[in-house]
Amino acid sequence: MEIVYKKIDELIPYENNPRFNDDAVEYVAKSIKEFGFKVPIVIDKDGIIVAGHTRYKASLELGLDEVPCIVADDLTEEQIKAFRLADNKVSEKAEWDFELLEEELADLDIDMEEFGFEETVEEKVKKVKDTGDIPFSEVIGEEHNYIILYFDNDVDWLQAQSVFDIKPVKAGSTRKDGKMNGRLSGRVGVGRVLKGAEAINKLLGVKDENIN
What are phi and psi of 56, to 5 degrees? Predict the structure, then answer.
């Protein structure tokens, strides 16, 4: 697929673009400045943007005269409309593996806060490495009863971390025999198994003796 360079004033934003992207423009601009323009803007044969509105706005902010583009002239008008929606929607289906993310961030000297990664994530990783092991959460055993919570998005998960005071910990065994998968050895993660009574205390704001 051929990449062509177009003058920025030749591109036309799609007037019915249903995606709010202003909050991301700053980070995309910083990414382009740091790494270069690595992902072309997709346009139709008339120069109307199909995918890449955020990159377009970031280019304006950076004062770029021209940007790399791919002309989707092999798609019908219906396919272009569908692709525009699909391109934005599919990214919502991806999730972070926070343990691997923390490992990757810990290996970088580049300030990733510039690209939207919260500094606190890196600080948590550094804290665990500097201070040593933090006790893992309650060990799972068959004699316990469980309530399992799941979170559809990162905002709810971050709120849960705050409510339950969930901290990063070095990976520990959740098996009664104490054995641990070698792949997890030394990994930094987040304990997600909480003692039920303590969780209720945090939710209700009551003292331990009020929970039987």
Answer: -65, -50
Q: What is the distance between the alpha carbons of residues 143 and 177, in angstroms, rounded to a whole number?
A: 14
Please give the domain boundaries of the chain with CATH numbers for all domains. Answer: 4-93 (3.90.1530.10), 98-210 (no CATH)
Average of pLDDT values for 17-25? 89
**Distance (Å, whole) CA 125 – CA 101:** 10
Q: How far apart are CA 66 and CA 88, in angstroms?
A: 24
Query: Which sign, positive or negative, has the C-alpha torsion 21, 67, 116, 102?
Result: positive
Taking the C-alpha atoms of residue 47 and residue 150, their distance in angstroms, rounded to an integer, is 43
C-alpha span between 70 and 5 (Å, rounded): 9
Most confident segment among 18-27, 61-70, 129-138:
61-70
Report the alpha-carbon distance of residue 3 to residue 125 in Å, rounded.
Answer: 40
% pLDDT > 90, the chain: 37
Planar angle of CA 157, 159, 161, nearest 5 degrees: 70
Residue ranges of the alpha helices (H) in the chain? 22-35, 53-62, 77-89, 98-106, 119-131, 154-163, 196-204
Range 136-161 average pLDDT: 66
Burial, 42: exposed, middle or buried (Cβ in 10 Å; 0-12, 13-18, 19+)? buried
176: nearest Cα among 142, 134, 135: 142
Length of the chain: 212
